[in-house]
Design brief:
single chain; alpha+beta; 24% strand; 13 strands; globular; 330 residues; nine-stranded mixed sheet
Length: 330
Amino acid sequence: MIISRTPFRISFFGGGTDYPVWYKEHGGRVISTSIDKYCYVTLRELPPFFKYKHLLRYFEREEINTIDEIKHPSIRECLKYLDMNKSIELVHHADLPAQSGLGSSSTFTVGLLMAGYALNNQMRTKSQLAHDAIEIEQQRIEEAVGSQDQTAAAFGGFNRINFGGVREVDVTPITISSEKMKNLQKHLMLFFTGFSRNASDIAQKQIEITSRKAKELDIMVELCKEAENLLVSSENGFLEWGKLLNEQWKVKKSMTNLITNSKIDELYDEGIKSGALGGKLLGAGGGGFILFFALPEKHNQIKANLSSILHVPFNFDFSGSQIVYHSKNA
């Protein structure tokens, strides 16, 4: 039995510049971190005592005899990609709900690949794992997804990720002191809006209008550069960093009318009025999680004024996708 554990991610700056339709011509960059909320994939060889060859348990249950019969697109294409010739039982668990803006779909794909390679007694580097997941989602499933979620899930850590050029995807850890990293984390608050959305629909719309949004995407890249410079070069750049998040949100929600709605705007405005310096809706938009940046002494007031939605404490994660259990006897 194999159990993989793969972190969800928070994207701070540059989201939208990680779509191939943009970065293959213009280049892109994001700043993101993985967090201590995880997707778990349990994978084992299924004993030969059943009428079916494969058993899958996620939000649905599938009992099938061939990989081609699998309804879940990521599971089907991952198992094909792995050339899986074993009878398998797969179980999926997660700390957070799907379709919530934290890269859950790509996190699952990365975690399944990690577990599948282990079951096949194969090893892949973090870079190879990220590229495999990107190929499966973008080329084989043809989903409207970028390239940052798979990368953040595979590598883990607090990184600047560059897109485009010869390497396609290049990960650079943002190197700051542990004290500064802890201080940054203390300023962040995560809330669940209570409603999810289909990110693919929103992302597809954004991809369609990319050629008309060059100005906005260029601004996102510049904000990403500015945010990194503040963290690396300034000892007291936290206030400005929070304000940059607010600027990022203004640009992001101008991309399409699908990114926000009256409920999200109401929640965001309440957070700002309660003392947050900035924030953003995570992921493609339309629902899911909202991130706020605020002085620690403002947190209690923000939580009180946003008591209608769930506050989710978190810490940064630096491990990336990994195997946490491996037993040949299970």
